[in-house]
Amino acid sequence: MGRSKNDIWVGLFVLIGLAALMFLALQSANLLSLNFQRGYRITANFDNIGGLKPKAAVRSAGVVVGRVARIGFDDERFQARIELDMDPRFHFPKDSSLKILTSGLLGDQYIGIEPGADDKNLAPGDNVSATQSAVVLENLISQFLYNSAAGNASSGAGGKSSGGGAK
Amino acid sequence: MSWWRPSDIGFAVRRGLDDMGYAARFFWRLVRLAGPTFRRFSLLRDQVHFLGNYSLAIIAVSGLFVGFVLALQGYNILQRYGSAEAVGMMVALSLLRELGPVVTALLFAGRAGTSLTAEIGLMKAGEQFSAMEMMAVDPIQRIIAPRFWAGVIVMPLLTAVFNAVGVMGGWVVSVPMIGVDPGAFWSQMQGGVDVFDDLGNGVVKSVVFGFTVTFVALLQGYVAKPTAEGVARATTRTVVMASLMVLGLDFLLTALMFS
Q: What ipTM score was computed for the predicted complex, to two decimals?
């Protein structure tokens, strides 16, 4: 096969294209932080997961230590059943607790893991039972209304203080 | 209404079906010629040079300006919600998912597709294909297939260049000009862009568009009437058909990938 003066230019073109792909993969898509080794999977039951989505982060002290793998429904206990892929580098005690948190006022929901004090660590397939549900605004408001109504009833039986917090 | 008879409808439908069958056969022929084309690498290399290198400048400049504009518009909208740092993510996602593949394909149709159609059409008008057949050279294998596969190779690379230059353009506008925090710019982008879901699907799109645009251009050139007017019409049809097919396919692919 003969050499041609086009060779170098075509080579340069292909090189530029591949360099652009590498730039995109590394700089904008963060390929390096991608974890190809599979972590250990644990499950957890929540009364209410709010707006949690698959691939949401599991954080401990603000550091991402896992991802939500799957969200399902347990129709015997009528709870949400969540599977978490935990980073194999990090281990947590067996009695750790999970709660659903929100990053910022309008941010995504994620799962916070609070380490417990057990000597044994969570193993693949373990189920975490100590969970705290997502905060649902409607429940919060109705609780508030209920509390303030109860407060009014007990404090001012003959009083005129009906307004205030009950609104 | 003497100029429109019911039989004309049947004629139009049959002709449309006939064209479609011919196009499908032509496409299958080109796909099967992949092996022989890649073995005669010098032909392919010259076409990659012609289609790729000469399109690089227009693609890079367009990508730069698209990145500029995306960053400006994105910043204006996002700062109303107090999340101007997300401009990096917005620029990267819109480029990688939609604008990169689509705009590159449209520009490629205009820059390279037209020249393919005109070249093939004029070769046909000059009866060069008949001459090749007389010499027992298959014109589809010798002329059309290298151009086709070169287009398919070149499209994803051009799209990658467009995206990369666009992201840099977005950075230029956001960080030095507007003053968005560079750390937040990149970390928001890296947090929001997935290698497979966004970058990978964008590459798949660009490969599909490479097949589409190059195939339309070559087919239009090959079936053009061998006259000056016929070649002119074929060139116009290349741009119109390729653009419409790219936009329609983009909708389909987006619905499949991102829903």
A: 0.83
**Residue A164 reports pLDDT greater than 70:** no
Which of A2, A18, A29 is nearest residue B195 as measured by Cβ atoms? Answer: A29
Number of domains in chain A: 1
A117, A130 contact by CB (below 8 A): no
Q: Where are the alpha helices (DSSP H) in B79-113?
A: 87-94, 100-108
User: Is A51 among the domain residues?
Assistant: yes
A22, part of any domain: no
Tell me the average pLDDT across B98-115.
95
Tens-place pLDDT, residues B35-85: 988 888 888 999 999 999 999 999 999 999 999 999 999 999 998 888 888
Which pLDDT score is estimated for A2? 61
Query: Which residues of B, range 176-205, sit inside 8 Å of A by Cβ?
Result: 186, 189-191, 193-195, 198-199, 203
CA distance A156 to chain B (A): 44
Give the three-class secondary structure for A51: coil
Residue ranges making up the domain that contains A71: 37-144
Whether residue A24 is contained in a domain is answered as no
Which one of A24, A67, A105 makes the best mutation probe of the B interface by having the most chain B beta carbons within 10 Å? A24
Nearest-Cα residue of chain B relative to residue A12: B53
B155 and chain A: CB distance < 8 Å anywhere?
Answer: no
- Provide the token pair at B255: 């619905």
B40 has a chain A CB within 8 A of its CB:
no
